[in-house]
Structures are given as structure tokens and as C-alpha cells.
């Protein structure tokens, strides 16, 4: 299983993806996702210029050693770009290991701990009627959990609202970042009203989630969490910025609304205090940003010790390789909670062919050896990279704000 080639393909079948392809001497191909929304080329260069040359000649079977070689060996630690690169290598090596064994990756992780992976869909609307139509669509399709977002009245634009009822949205849609204006007071008045409306319309027979995208201060979250308690959310996501874990002590002392954090985190150390002080309920890590399958398993094991469950990041700005890798982990770990799922629009399906399937609100990664995703490099070449940026957020007076 000697590695003979490692190459990076940046393509844009609907949106930009960075794919790492690792080939071994017997011609087996392993694939990893290195996409970092809005900073794709930085990871591509980190891999091409600094990591791929180090992989040639290494034994693809030595996953943990390769992880440590790239992490400890670089001297410079953590950070989005470097960790996305290490994650992609790790994911590709697990894919190769599964292919060599002739087994789906989840079998190598201890086998299925459940029959399927419960997912949540993204419902959204420009107003409450649109939101109702969107939620209905997910419930009709069999989803057992739905994230609800709606445009905040009085704001020109609210992040994360799809133009279509199926919630599909692509926020990285401009050649330079668009500027959005945020108003916390309007949001804090609207969000409880919006989520109460959802429970009034649809009842409590499904799990309801909501994402706040780091925009509130800790005391604002404390108030929102209290206001939302009657709606019994599955989780309130990223309510405040995650860099200061002690902020969550304040939130915790005021509300029982469950909290999910970590889609922008890169390592177990980012999560350590939040988990060991039981300040969060769900770990939101991305397999392709938090060190691949190897490191995600470490984070999830730590979380399990403290009764914290998993809720892996899974938007369409991570490629189908990431979603598949997350699903193998989800199926195998004891403390699985829920998985985010946004179906990939065409032409992503021309470039990536996946074996995971959806039924009755659950995904299953399938039983193809490895991760179960084939990457078509010729099809990828037909969709070249286009510079695309996420928006930024300002307050009405022009100050930069978290978004
Ligand atoms: C989510 C996220 C995404 C992020 C996106 C940024 O909960 O799915 O908040 O929508 O904004 O991944 O690239
Ligand atoms: Mg989020």
C-alpha cells in the first residue's frame, strides 16, 4: 500500500470543492475533502506544495502515524487551512483502508451501532408562510428533524435563507464578500415568535433546530434560550462566538435550551473545556475541518465521557466525500446525536457518485468498500474553480459584527 501519487483537484460543480486524490502502487484510489469555503486555494496550495510531496513513498496503512507526522511534524499547529489539509489526507487514507479490506469504513470503526443516521433538513422562508411551506415539504419527505430559519423583518437580507422551499442556499455567491446589515434587537424579538409559530402550526411531533451563527452576546443568548424553552428545541446552534468557552458558563446558568457548537473548530482542544464542563450538548465538528475521521473519533470519545452527543456539520459547502465520511462515523459511534443534511444539487452528482441513501428521515452510508464515493476527475475538469466569497456582517452604524 505504498503511496505513489497524491494530487489536488479544485472544481466547481455548483460550488467550489477541493478534492485530494491519493493513489497506491496497486492503483487503488482514496479520496479526501479539503474544502474550506472562501479559502479553497490556500488549502490546495498547502496540500500541493507542502503535504503531497511528503506522502509519496509512505505506507497508506499507517493512518495515525501519518496524522501525527503532518500535525506534529509541521511545528505550526491548528488553524483552518492546515487542519483542512490534514483532514483530507486522513479521510483519503481511511477510504484506502476500507478498499483494501473490502469493507465500508463504518465496519472498521466497530460496525453499525444503529440502523440509520437521523438527519435534519434546512427549512427556510422569506416570511412565515414560506417557512411553513418549506417545513411541510421536509415533513412530507419523511424528515424527523428540521432546522427553521426565516428572514428577520426589517432587515434587507438574512443569512441562510434559501430562495427555494427545499432550503437550498449558496451563501458564497459573490466574487467579493457581500456586506449584510444585522440588527440583534429585531432578531431577538422575531426568533421566539417565529419558532413559536412553527410549533403552533406543526406541533411537537418532530425535532426543531435553529442556528444563530455566532451573532449574539452571552447575555443575549441567555435571554433567547429562556424565551425558546417552551418550543423545546433539539438545539440552538452557535448562539455566540465559540472562542471563549467561559461565555457558555453564563448561558448554561440561565437556560435549559440545548446548545450545539463547533462547526468552525479544528481540534479536540477547541472543544476540551466546553465538553469537560458540560457547557454544550452537541459537538458540531466537521470531519474535513477537525482532523478527519481519526481526530473526530477522539473528539467524540471525549464528548461521550461527559454525555455530550454528536451533530456533525454537513452543509453543501463540504463535498459529498465529507458527508460520507461523517455518515460512517455517525453510524458507528455510541454517542451519535443527529447529522446535518443538505442534498447536493446537480451538477455535483456528475463529479461525485455516492452510495449513501436517504429513507424515512435517515441516511445510510451504504456498503461499498471504503467511503463509497467515486470522484470523476474528467467531469471535475469541466467545472473549473470560480472565486466565490461568503458575505460579511455589519451593524447599522457600519461596525463589523459576527455573522
Ligand atoms: C450550517 C452552517 C453553514 C455555514 C457554512 C459556511 O449550520 O450549516 O452555519 O451554513 O454557514 O458552512 O461555509
Ligand atoms: Mg451553522
From TrEMBL:
Domain of life: Bacteria
Pfam families linked: MR_MLE_C (PF13378), MR_MLE_N (PF02746)
Organism: Pseudolysinimonas kribbensis
Gene3D superfamilies, A to Z: Enolase-like C-terminal domain, Enolase-like, N-terminal domain
InterPro entries named among the record's database cross-references: D-mannonate_dehydratase-like (IPR034589), DgoD-like (IPR034593), Enolase-like_C_sf (IPR036849), Enolase-like_N (IPR029017), Enolase_C-like (IPR029065), Mandel_Rmase/mucon_lact_enz_CS (IPR018110), Mandelate_racemase_C (IPR013342), Mandelate_racemase_N_dom (IPR013341)
Domain Mandelate racemase/muconate lactonizing enzyme C-terminal: 128-258
Record's protein name: Bifunctional D-altronate/D-mannonate dehydratase
Amino acid at each position: 500500500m505504498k503511496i505513489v501519487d497524491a494530487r489536488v483537484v479544485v472544481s466547481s460543480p455548483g460550488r467550489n470543492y477541493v478534492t485530494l486524490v491519493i493513489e497506491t502502487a496497486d492503483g487503488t484510489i482514496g479520496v479526501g475533502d479539503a474544502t474550506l469555503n472562501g479559502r479553497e486555494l490556500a488549502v490546495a496550495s498547502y496540500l500541493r506544495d507542502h503535504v503531497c510531496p511528503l506522502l509519496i513513498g509512505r505506507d497508506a496503512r499507517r493512518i495515525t502515524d501519518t496524522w501525527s507526522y503532518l500535525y506534529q511534524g509541521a511545528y505550526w499547529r491548528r488553524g483552518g487551512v492546515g487542519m483542512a489539509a490534514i483532514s483530507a489526507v486522513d479521510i483519503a487514507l481511511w477510504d484506502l483502508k476500507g478498499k483494501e479490506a473490502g469493507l465500508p469504513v463504518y465496519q472498521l470503526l466497530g460496525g453499525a451501532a444503529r440502523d440509520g443516521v437521523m438527519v435534519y433538513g434546512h427549512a427556510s422562508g422569506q416570511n412565515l408562510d414560506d417557512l411553513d411551506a418549506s417545513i411541510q415539504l421536509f415533513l412530507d419527505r419523511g424528515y424527523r428533524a428540521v432546522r427553521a430559519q426565516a428572514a428577520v423583518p426589517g432587515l434587507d437580507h438574512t443569512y441562510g435563507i434559501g430562495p427555494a422551499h427545499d432550503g437550498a442556499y449558496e451563501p458564497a455567491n459573490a466574487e467579493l464578500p457581500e456586506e449584510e446589515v444585522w440588527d440583534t434587537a429585531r432578531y431577538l424579538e422575531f426568533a421566539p415568535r417565529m419558532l413559536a409559530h412553527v410549533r403552533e402550526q406543526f406541533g411537537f411531533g418532530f425535532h426543531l433546530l435553529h442556528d444563530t451563527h455566532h451573532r449574539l452576546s452571552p447575555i443575549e443568548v441567555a435571554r433567547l434560550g429562556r424565551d425558546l424553552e417552551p418550543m423545546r428545541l433539539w438545539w440552538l446552534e452557535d448562539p455566540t462566538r465559540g472562542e471563549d468557552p467561559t461565555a457558555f458558563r453564563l448561558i448554561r446558568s440561565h437556560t435549559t435550551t440545548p446548545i450545539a457548537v463547533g462547526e468552525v473548530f479544528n481540534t479536540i482542544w477547541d472543544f476540551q473545556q466546553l465538553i469537560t464542563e458540560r457547557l454544550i450538548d452537541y459537538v458540531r465538528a466537521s470531519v474535513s475541518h477537525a482532523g478527519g475521521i481519526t481526530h473526530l473519533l477522539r473528539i467524540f470519545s471525549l464528548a461521550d465521557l461527559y454525555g455530550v452527543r454528536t451533530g456533525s456539520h454537513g452543509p453543501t459547502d463540504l463535498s459529498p466525500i465529507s458527508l460520507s465520511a461523517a455518515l460512517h462515523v455517525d453510524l458507528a459511534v455510541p454517542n451519535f446525536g443527529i447529522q446535518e443534511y443538505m442534498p447536493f444539487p446537480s451538477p455535483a452528482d456528475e463529479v461525485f457518485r455516492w452510495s449513501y441513501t436517504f429513507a424515512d428521515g435517515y441516511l445510510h452510508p451504504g456498503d461499498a468498500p471504503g467511503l463509497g464515493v467515486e470522484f470523476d476527475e474528467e467531469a471535475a475538469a469541466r467545472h473549473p474553480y470560480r472565486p466565490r466569497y461568503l458575505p460579511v456582517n455589519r451593524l447599522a452604524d457600519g461596525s463589523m459584527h459576527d455573522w
